[in-house]
Specification:
319 residues, alpha+beta, Thermophilic metalloprotease-like, 2 domains, 8-stranded antiparallel β-sheet, 7-stranded antiparallel β-sheet
Length: 319
């Protein structure tokens, strides 16, 4: 069995618990077709029935798949989506879960990322993630700082955090593969400060030029400054209007095998990093429904929840 097929088997058997009584769907596109085919071939040996569908690449993360594919996703027991752009925060994924499907999304997945990260200890990742989620659930205010210039206050009182553990085994559940993060939306309209993205940004890639400096007022990004990468980000968001600039998410990575590569699927899971997303927050219980969700990862942050430091200069402190 090839390394890719071995990773596909871990994803389907260990992480999704796919079994012989179930139907299984792979949704992919031309950019990720080799991974889609590998998952399909492995799925045929595990599930009662397996189907592979290939769509055109979406333009941005969070854009809906074609209607026929969206409808199809709700008719299977297990769905996995290795695609160039993310289907995580789409109505198609939400409706599929409402219909009982469990859905794993793999936005931006590459063969290298899949082979490296699917060998992680997901039980350990889950343990870390659940501890963080409990802390976030009880928290009222997150304060995120970094030497690069991040200094932002994010109210989270009464908001339920979500554990993305890489274990997508229950009916109606969803998550990324590979995974490892605890995340939540802020209280809407209340985040204030500056965050500086020096790791990577979804739809932009790894930050090589100049960090992206984002000023936040009343829960919206009101100013984006930086070099070439900042201009790329603005080009993605500006055509979509104000909602695209909503502060949608705060997340903390828990995957010790992940590294920052420019692929946000992996980057936002890197243990010791934090990320803030702009755009859609519907999947986290919010009201901002817009066809984009982009995460910005910053390196070596310090994250304080109320009076408790849980990340200090990139070191996770949750014991």
């Amino acid at each position: 069995m090839s390394d890719l097929n071995t990773s596909a088997k871990i994803a389907l058997k260990d992480c999704m618990n796919l079994n012989s009584n179930e139907t299984f769907l792979v949704v992919t596109d031309d950019q990720t077709l080799s991974i889609g085919k590998s998952l399909f071939e492995v799925g045929k040996s595990l599930a009662k029935e397996s189907t592979l569908v290939v769509m055109e690449e979406r333009k941005v993360n969070g854009e809906e798949p074609p209607g026929q594919i969206a409808e199809l996703m709700g008719k299977y027991d297990a769905v996995i989506c290795p695609t160039k752009k993310s289907l995580t925060h789409t109505d198609a994924r939400r409706k599929a879960c409402e219909n009982g499907a469990r859905v794993a999304t793999m936005p931006g997945i590459t063969e290298e990322v899949m082979i490296r990260t699917m060998g992680a200890d997901y039980l350990k990742i889950a343990e870390r993630t659940y501890i963080l989620t409990e802390i976030l659930d009880k928290g009222k205010m997150a304060h995120v700082t970094s030497e690069a210039g991040t200094d932002i206050y994010i109210p989270i009182n009464g908001i339920n955090a979500i554990s993305s553990t890489g274990l997508v085994k229950e009916k109606g559940k969803y998550g990324n593969l590979p995974s490892g993060e605890s995340f939540l939306m802020p209280e809407e309209g209340k985040a204030e400060g500056i965050f500086v993205v020096d790791g990577s940004f979804a739809s932009v890639g790894k930050i090589y030029d100049e960090p992206i400096r984002i000023t936040v007022e009343k829960g919206f990004a009101v100013k984006i400054k930086g070099g070439e990468e900042a201009e790329k980000l603005k080009a993605v968001l500006e055509p979509l209007g104000k909602q695209a600039f909503n502060i949608a998410e705060l997340g903390i990575g828990t995957n010790d095998k992940a590294i920052v590569t420019g692929e946000i699927l992996e980057d936002e899971k890197v243990m010791g990093t934090a990320h803030i997303a702009l755009g859609n927050n519907i999947s986290m219980g919010g009201t901002c429904s817009i066809g984009v969700h982009v995460d910005g990862v910053f390196l070596n942050p310090t994250v304080k929840i109320d009076d408790r430091i849980i990340l200090e200069n990139g070191k996770l402190i949750i014991d």
